[in-house]
Design brief:
By secondary structure, this protein is mostly helical. It has helices spanning 5-11, 25-32, 36-44, 63-103, 110-129, 136-165, 169-193, 198-207, and strands at 22-23, 61-62. Among the domains are: 7-70, Arc Repressor Mutant, subunit A (Orthogonal Bundle), CATH 1.10.10; 136-199. The chain is built from 8 helices and 2 strands.
């Protein structure tokens, strides 16, 4: 279901005692406990914004809208994960049936497959609540935040070191090559793990 601001505000009002205010980009990142570059990515995903920064004007966000959007987004992600998890469990039961047929064992009925899949899902859900499992969507989001911040820090490290430690030109060049190599390696590893993520991280970094 596409995001609907009015419906989201109705379903996810600010918690009691939370003041609703207009905030800038940095404050919005603080409120959501993410980096500023991640706000760029959120904007691409539909984060509501009162005013987009331009010509020296700061971005403006409404906390109630930001909160409602994040809660809506997280709820939708959980629902999608749960549906995918159940579908995966059901398919696993089908392959188990294939193995049983080859071994001569009795196969499961469609109802039994659904029941086993539901039981597996509930076990995984309980493990998640105990903190033993974490949803892949959350792991990936945290992973991306860390890598965006890593890239931003490495990109400014050479200038910082040159000014802080009065590095000679040849030392600056060596350090620049080392930092560039680290970024290339990180980009390669991320691209191999998440082919569709690299371009998103590059846009987020440029927006920061």
């Amino acid at each position: 279901m596409a995001f609907q601001l009015e419906e989201a505000l109705r379903r996810f009002p600010l918690p009691e005692g939370q003041t609703d205010m207009t905030v800038n980009r940095r404050q919005c990142a603080t409120a959501l406990d993410v980096s500023e570059p991640m706000i760029t990515r959120y904007l691409e995903q539909g984060l509501p914004v009162l005013s987009r920064g331009s010509n020296g004007q700061a971005y403006e966000f409404q906390l109630s809208e930001v909160y409602a959007w994040k809660m809506w987004r997280d709820a939708a992600a959980r629902k999608q994960d749960e549906a995918a998890e159940q579908a995966a469990m059901q398919m696993r039961m089908l392959f188990r049936n294939d193995d049983d047929e080859e071994s001569g064992a009795s196969t499961l009925t469609a109802q039994e497959i659904a029941q086993e899949a539901d039981a597996d899902y509930k076990r995984n859900k309980a493990a998640e609540l105990r903190g033993e499992l974490t949803r892949t969507s959350r792991v990936r989001e945290v992973f991306e935040e860390v890598l965006v911040e890593f890239r931003n820090q490495v990109s400014t490290l050479v200038d910082f070191a040159e000014m802080e430690f009065s590095l000679a030109p040849d030392q600056v060049e060596k350090m620049q090559r080392r930092c560039d190599a680290a970024l290339v390696a990180a980009r390669h590893n991320l691209d191999r793990a998440y082919p569709s993520t690299v371009a998103q991280l590059e846009r987020a970094g440029q927006g920061g």
